[in-house]
Amino acid sequence: MKDVFFKTKESVMSTNLRPSDLNAESDFVEDDEGQKSPSLSQVAYRRLRHDVISGVLRPNERLVEVELSERLGMSRTPVRDALGRLATDGLISRGKRGWTVHEYTREELLRIYETRAALEGYAARLCALRASDEELEAMTRILESAPEDVEGASPDFRVDQNEEFHSAVIRGCGNPRLIELIERNAEFYFNHRAVQMYTSDELQRSLDGHLELFAALEARDEDAAERALREHLFESVAVLLTKGRW
After folding, report:
1. N or C, fewer C-beta in 10 Å, the chain?
2. What does the DSSP 8-state code read for residue 244?
């Protein structure tokens, strides 16, 4: 029997947020005029998370609270809070030498992508049913922002566009609980380290995977959307496992 879903959207979803920005209310502070802004802990978390995922902070690199505090221009308390959250995300580890950027084994990497395929595949299914026309238009703009020649874009652009597109699909599912679960598994993404491993043909196949997924979303074909996203992720992990030093 065909699955039935409630085609509703929760107002908490914002087109200006990536999954990594959908954090608890305590991450924000309110000024005298009632305006909310990210807390120092949230700022530290975002910046350090970006540096780990983008490759600025390398695998096995040691993280020293005092040095990070000076670098971020804040006290050690928010930095310590941020490091705890990054450890929960699986991005850093604590050992005898203190905090270090986590380096994944082959088994860990495969498990991460298997979990991503399950969670994000279902998010794509819901997105096909629930995404608004405005959200689909936003995805179109993301895809059209890339130059036609895959080698015409910098690695930074490829990484940012990939995260932006996947985040837009995830947001489109309209399920904050599912988004939270996806964020908890956001330990390894298509990042600056990964993009270096791709040939031009592999980059093109990755972009074609985005186009195939979007076509399914636009057609409101939930089966095709879920299948396309899962296949896209398994192609990605195959590249990493074949070429990475795991």
Report:
1. N
2. S
Indicate whether 121 and 234 sit together in one domain: yes
Say if strands 62-63 and 36-38 run parallel, antiparallel, or are unpaired: unpaired
How many Cβ atoms sit within 10 Å of the Cβ of residue 26?
9
Residue at which a domain ends, from 67, 101, 135: 101
Residue 99 dihedral angles phi and psi, to the nearest 5°: -80, 135
**Domain-located, residue 111:** yes
Sign of the dihedral defined by the CA atoms of residues 137, 141, 142, 147, in that order: positive
d(CA 96, CA 75): 23
The one-digit pLDDT tens for each residue of the chain (246 residues) are 334 333 333 322 333 334 344 344 345 444 444 554 678 999 999 999 888 877 788 889 999 999 999 999 999 999 999 999 999 888 899 988 899 998 888 898 889 899 999 999 999 999 999 999 999 999 999 999 987 777 777 777 888 888 899 999 999 999 999 999 998 776 665 566 677 778 888 888 999 999 999 999 999 999 999 999 999 999 999 988 888 665
Residue 135 in any domain: the answer is yes
> Is the pTM of the predicted complex or chain greater than 0.85?
no
> For residue 187, what are the domain limits?
106-243
Question: Considering the domain boundaries, does residue 1 fall inside one?
Answer: no
Query: Is 232 found in the same domain as 133?
Result: yes
**Residue 185 counted as domain residue:** yes
Which of the listed residues 79, 101, 123 is the one where a domain comes to its end?
101
